[in-house]
Design the sequence.
């Protein structure tokens, strides 16, 4: 879970209230979905493409983690309303948008993986029911 920190010079009560609002504010603090594992029994070309996409998502996540860390380092203790505070607020908004886009990309990827599994299962055909034991008269 990512947490962005922006501390203001206001009294503790207001800071605590702001933190509560911030915690309920959306995708930044929400647990981001993880990309699904790619099944090994998919056709090789499809499996390679999905693994490539999964790797790109992992790199994208690492970039977001680094952006959040940098934001926290630069914006911790910055007064709201100051020029630097305005830059921090704009950066926070950009990070939130990027996290929302990442979540949407992971959800699309997971849908592609699930659809590939369904297509594979349909192509394999329905399983034959087990033979019934013959009953004696």
Sequence:
């Amino acid at each position: 879970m990512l947490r962005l920190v922006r501390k203001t010079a206001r009294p503790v009560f207001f800071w605590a209230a702001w933190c509560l609002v911030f915690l309920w504010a959306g995708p930044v603090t929400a647990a981001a979905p993880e990309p699904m594992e790619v099944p090994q029994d998919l056709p090789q070309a499809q499996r390679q493409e999905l693994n490539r996409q999964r790797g790109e998502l992992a790199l994208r996540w690492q970039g977001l983690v680094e952006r959040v860390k940098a934001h926290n380092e630069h914006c911790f203790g910055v007064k709201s309303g100051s020029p630097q505070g305005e830059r921090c607020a704009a950066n926070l908004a950009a990070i939130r948008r990027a996290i929302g886009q990442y979540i949407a990309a992971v959800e699309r990827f997971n849908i592609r993986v699930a659809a590939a599994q369904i297509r594979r299962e349909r192509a394999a055909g329905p399983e034959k029911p087990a033979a019934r034991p013959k009953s004696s008269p």
Q: What stands out?
A: Residues 12-123 form one domain.
